[in-house]
Design a protein that fits this description.
The structure holds four protein chains of four kinds.
Chain A: H1 4-26, H2 34-59, E1 65-73, E2 76-82, H3 84-107, H4 116-135, H5 139-157, H6 164-191, H7 204-209, H8 214-232, H9 240-247, H10 250-275, H11 281-302, H12 308-335, H13 339-374, H14 385-388, H15 390-403, H16 410-423, H17 431-463, H18 480-498, H19 500-515, H20 520-526, H21 543-564, E3 569-572, H22 590-600, E4 606-610, E5 622-626, H23 628-648, H24 656-675
Helix pairs in contact in A: 1-2, 1-4, 2-3, 2-4, 3-4, 3-10, 3-13, 3-18, 4-5, 4-10, 5-6, 5-10, 6-8, 6-9, 8-10, 9-10, 9-12, 10-12, 10-13, 11-12, 11-17, 12-13, 12-17, 13-15, 13-16, 13-18, 13-19, 15-17, 15-18, 16-17, 16-18
Chain C: H1 7-28, H2 32-57, H3 61-87, H4 100-123, H5 132-149, H6 153-175, H7 180-208
Chain D: H1 2-20, H2 26-51, E1 54-56, E2 61-63, H3 65-94, H4 100-122, H5 126-144, H6 150-185, H7 194-200, H8 206-224, H9 232-239, H10 242-270, H11 275-295, H12 301-322, H13 325-356, H14 367-370, H15 372-385, H16 392-407, H17 411-434, H18 450-464, H19 468-481
Antiparallel strand pairs in D: 1-2
Helix pairs in contact in D: 1-2, 1-4, 2-3, 2-4, 3-4, 3-10, 3-13, 3-19, 4-5, 4-10, 5-6, 5-10, 6-8, 6-9, 8-10, 9-10, 9-12, 10-12, 10-13, 11-12, 11-17, 12-13, 13-15, 13-16, 13-18, 13-19, 15-17, 15-18, 16-18
The chains are: A mainly alpha, B mainly alpha, C mainly alpha, D mainly alpha.
Chain lengths: 676, 318, 222, 482
Amino acid sequence: MTTLTGALSIDWMLLLVCAWIVIALAGLVAPKSFRYASRVLYPAGALVGLLLALTAFIALGGTPETMVLPLGLPDLPFHLRLDSLSALFLVLLGGSAAGISIFSAGYLRQAEGALPGLQSLQYHLFLASMALVLLADDAYAFMVAWESMALSSFFLVTSDHRLPEIRRAGYLYLLIAHIGAISILLCFGILQGNGHVGVAGYTFANMRSIDHSVFWSSAAFGLALLGFGAKAGLLPLHVWLPEAHPAAPSPVSAMMSGVMLKTAIYGILRVSFDLLHHPLWWWGVSVLALGLVTALFGVIYSAVQSDMKRLLAYSSIENIGLLFVGIGLALTFQSFGMTGLAALALTSVLYHCLNHAAFKSLLFLVTGSVLHATHTRSLGKLGGLIHRMPWVAWLGLVGALASAGLPPFNGFVSEWLLLQAFLFTPGLPHGYINMMVPVAAAAVALTAALAGYVMVKFFAVIFLGRPREENLAHAQDAGTLERIGLSWLAALCVALGLFPVYVIEKLDLVTRPLLGTGIYGAAGAHNWLFLAPIDPGRASYAPVVFLLSIAVIVAATMFIVHRFWRGRTRITGAWDCGFPVQTARMQDTAEGFGQPLRQVFEPFYRMQRELPSSFDKQPFYRVVVDDHFWYWLYLPAARAAEFGAKMVAFLQRGRISIYLMYSFITLVVLLFLIRG
Amino acid sequence: MSSAPALVLQFLELILALLAAPLLTGWVNQCRAWLGNRSAPPLTQFYRQLAKLFEKEVVLADNASSLFRAAPYVIFACMALASMIVPTLSTDLPFAPAADAIALVGIFALARVFAALAGMDIGTSFGTMGARREMLIGFLAEPALLMVFFTASLISHSTSLSTIVETLGQREFAIYPSLAFAGVAFTMVSLAENARIPVDNPTTHLELTMIHEAMILEYSGRHLALIEWAASLKLYAYSCLGLALFFPWGIPETTGPLSMLVALSSLVLKLAIGGFLLALIETLSAKLRIFRAPEFLGTAFMLAVLAMLVHQLLETAT
Amino acid sequence: MNGHLPLYAQVINLLAAMLLLLSFAMLAQRRILSLINLFMAQGMVLFASTVVVAAATGQHHLYWSALLTLVLKVMLLPWILHRLIRRLNVKWDVETLINIPTTMMIGLVLVIFSFNLALPISALAGTITRSTLGVALAAVMLAFLMMITRSKAVPQVIGFLAMENGLFFAATSATYGMPMVVELGIALDVLVGMVILGVFFFQIREQFDSLDIRHLEQLKED
Amino acid sequence: MEFLLVLGFPLAGGLVLAATGHWKRAAEINSAFSLLTLLAAALLTLRVIEHGPQLLFDEEIFIDPLNVFLVALTAFVGFTTSLFSRPYMRIEHDHGRLSSRRLRLYHSMFQMFSFTMLLALTTNNMGILWVSMEAATLTTVLLVSLYRTPASLEAAWKYFILCGVGIAQALFGTILLYFAAEKVLGGGSGALLWTHLDAVKGQLEPTVLSLAFVFLLVGYGTKVGLVPLHNWLPDAHAEGPTPVSAVLSGLLLNVALYAVVRCKVLADGALHSNLPGMLMMGFGLLSVVVAAFFLSRQKDVKRLFGYSSIEHMGIITFAFGMGGPVASFAGLLHMTVHSLTKSAIFFAVGHAAQKCGSQAIDDIRGLIKLSPTVGWGLMLGALAILGMPPSGVFASEFLILTTAMKEQPWATPILLIALGVAFAAIFGKVQPMVFGEPTAKRLPHKPAMLPVFIHLGLVLMLGLWIPPYLAEWYRQAAKLIG
């Protein structure tokens, strides 16, 4: 079972997690010292992250290794297990953590929010708990790690708790996370089966061994979907996400959006593919539908945001939606026994997890640097930063293109795989699903295209054009450590984009144990250069060739152009169309750029607009775009709770005779009951 | 990889595309002039234009970033690559596997994004307006195009263009209602994508209506030349694509000089007809208000999806 | 049923009936002084019944508890109560939240309910005094009802003590008395409770200058 | 003889402090007695660990796995509370809210209270159990009314009447129990010994026992604070001095629940139906839901946590009602961690209220600035009581919920909603108290936060590692409860 290297890797893993915990506690040594945190703790954390990623990478595809800790409940000590699935997500965690930690080492500033030592404590506990979530092999360990993750991230989100809206965001976040956690817990309650084994039934090993009835497995799946969906930001449980991400310090937002959301994906995969055996087709279809709605919702809303971090948060919702679409497809395929296609869909999901982790953390870190340079999150006050902060800008461009799903960057590959998976659905033996497929595919395509729109808005409004405010003139580019972090993530984006075959070879190690098959056989057999999931005749994509040919053509054109026409260039002011007064405020604002979408998708938004009349001395325009779900779901729920509270208040009107009457009636009623 | 002659052929196709594209644009303009009872410019007008532009000096706004300078080259490269991938003379292209239909859409998107970014780089209100409108059209046209490809690839069980064209071309003639839908959708998309009436007007510089032109307003000299050339390449690529998808006959997969001649002639013929039809459409229809454009493209999108549905309904049985 | 019962059993049944009657009387009683007297009378009945049971069954510790009853419930508590109302000079009549007839009706229903509740149990009682359990239960219930209906502190407390009486009656006549320890404990608790209540009355009075517990309705969920 | 000490020290303490309670060093004496009690309890625990269950004083005293840890817990929390009350009451005294006569009453009653609880826990005689419960009520009545404010008097009065009546029901239940027992065991004091009853519970008359159980449940349930018998609880918690609130919800509720459980064991044995379980589950669920909804309307912080005690008692009752090894285990664990956490919270709340000079939630703001230790103590305590891991509360709730999902699926949606509402309410009120900008000005005195962090530390430990013998007790007790 445990080969030498195998035995090593989980021990290493545990060691590294403990290292994170130690670093966390080390923060308490000098909680006020900011140099200590930024020069010692965070770099150390980054190093650990790197090692973690390496260890997990080695463990990828090895035989699953288990371990039991002397902690936990009496009959239920913490079980840890390192299999390919968790290894992959650990790679993701370690890789992003390395970049983000090193970035935060440079990012950390004096006198921002909580004490630096305390913040590092919470940050590293956050990392450690995420790692434990991925390693846990019994319900209790999983839940403990899961909730600790929520808790530590909550404290990070509210680290600048003086602002009420940040407190509100944290509150919303923790509340939804808690409700989700309870439903996950109930899901485990079902999965543990009839529990003749007592507490020992909570181990995943036991859960795997049990076959549930259709009803109970569906119930378990539903609860899991609810719980993990709440963490992932699946509709309609997404409202915390656009609140919490802007509230958190940027590295934390990067960590949450890049990695924490993926732990939810990990959870749903773990439950639906590992613990539950026989998915039903309608699970897949419902997940697919939910995912589509989420994706469209996310991208449509992110297009109209004017706060750069909210924009990214909504785009995270979109990506989560796409991930769930993939999961839904995989489930559907598997329920019809088409493991090959299920493998294709699942591969696209895993691939997209990696991609999103890379580019979304990159983008959030970019917003962090911009925030520090300009002290504003509002897109309306930015612009032209490419001249002031070229590093951030160009690295950000990589992230933006990747996030827009453009070749040859990584975002495109997973999108491509997903669409391929769609193209092969007609094989399904179920008419209605086949009818649904085109619509679904169309929605996915639309989402991808809109993502491009969003990313153009994001990048162009922040970095291009002319500065919309004077103070932007003395914005500083990111420091060295920050650059290292950003470059690391950008490099990941490019690498993931350029060598899909290699990545898929690794992903196969994950899909094979889960589904019994993988797509590498077809994908790689053709050629390491060409990615062909089914067979090269049907579909293929070669990013390297792609990039090379573009590069060659660009180079050739440049050469020719400069060779044959002496490239004279005159630098002058921009052409003002005969309109002399051109101020920076005349550029499109973020709102302006989103305006076409606001028109096209009007019914999707809840908008209040204040339009200036033509006689205004100081014309004023304001638009507020709200989330329908807030008014459809959350406020009613709150009102219902309020109503319930008002009702129960009648129990406590202060009159003692009434109280006595209560107990009297209770007594009489009970006596009646037992006589029956 | 494929054989040496195939590589040569690939190169030939590129050269052909580079040369033929301006001609196609010229031809369309000629037809439009004729149809509009104007005296037509010569067929080679576009070459002269390019030459002149290359000669001119570049007038660069003082706050232009390096992205602004790089964009034309990238766009041009994208279009060149696209026209390399689309099977025109032969389906046995060594570069074809590099990018299938989906990737092709990706290429167009990449070009569009760079154009839009460049448009917003200077920070004049025109550039940003153009970029915004371009993206607006793009985000509707792109999925529609994708859906068209999907229909085709559902028929041919493949997304690689060569395979699609082969299957479509080699099969005995049969009526595919789905393809009909897809064809209409494709036409609408390509009108929009190539900045043609009724969505955009390549010849206007009227502030309120222009889209593509507004976006590239700041470009001049060789940059402008590259962009114009890229635009014509795009038109060429789209036309070839449409022909390859919906009138695939005459594209051989063997590479012999004779079959080349056949292919070339048939291509020229088809392009001529296509160009004329395009001119016809442009002349007969009026430019839409900018906010009608989404509806136009939405229709295209719907048609494309409908095409897939029709395929599911009627043709999966066969 | 009384025909072929031994004398003392009949006596006990008689006393039980009296107890029930007294409870009803207390429920109906408006004047606070006579309420106390009724309570004293109840104590007497209790004492008597305990003695009879003790005599009948020769359980000697029952004599002790009878004595305890006499001292506590016939002498001490009434005395304390009398002093209290004199010291606090509460002369007013007892106001009830529900009017008396209704209360009586409810009380009647309660008695019936508790009787047939106790029926199966007393059927299998080892003791000769079968039906007393039902009576005791009824007494407890009636006392409870009285506590609910009274709006002043003192009557409420008397109701509380009456409930204690009912329990005590159940303990003695139905089960020939609890173990001595327990009874002592109970008695002690009652006494201490009384004392504390005495203290309380003064506190409440000096805070609200009235013993009307309707003043004690400030703590609530608004 | 450890046991004598366990009961003797608090009794002696009560008497001594009745004389000396107004001295300057009275608080220290109080703590000293509590410490001695704790040590005695520790010795007793060790003895039980070595020799197993104990029957003492011709079986009047019985110490088994079900109550030994409660004894230890009671002694421990009693001690920490005395530590906390030392500075707290001094400050109250300095603020002139308490005369030294009252302090004397407070100290002596504090000791008497722990005596009565320990007696109730250790006695084997259901009658004595009742007596000591009643005594506990009387002592706490005096403690609750300590301030002699109108509000405190009202609270104490309601407490007295409601619990007195409730306890009376319990007495009737006890009598019925005896009534049923004497036919099997014959009369005499043997018939009320729990061990004897437990031995013959199979032969006890079901009809009588069911009646008895109802009365006992209503009676002791009133002291547990089960809805709808709970009305005294929030008032008493809010108006009494904070140390009293801490022991009330930390210990007294436990003791009452312990009494209920003892009765349930007998009833279960006699009745061959699941009636007691069903009743307890019903009460538990009702309490959880109603308390959860109450929480969201609270304006007074101590009242808030009073209701949260009702909620948790409901959870525990539900767990015992479900029965089975896992659920009962969880219930016992939850009793332990709840009393630790809740008392810790009350300590923190007490300091907070003193710092801000008010118990109103709206007046308490930005504690974390005002006094970081208090702030963090309150925040962590609240999170722990809300079942955030890795606190022990989470461990027990985890077991209870998962078991419920298995045994009583119908109950889980209700629990889900109730827990969600409770979380929203409590956390929504605690967060602004701890975070944000303070309104009050710093007060000079430094809080005694040591007990808080000891408690929270223990709770954390119980979430991650339960000492083997404790676990063993839980298991045996769970087996006993069934």
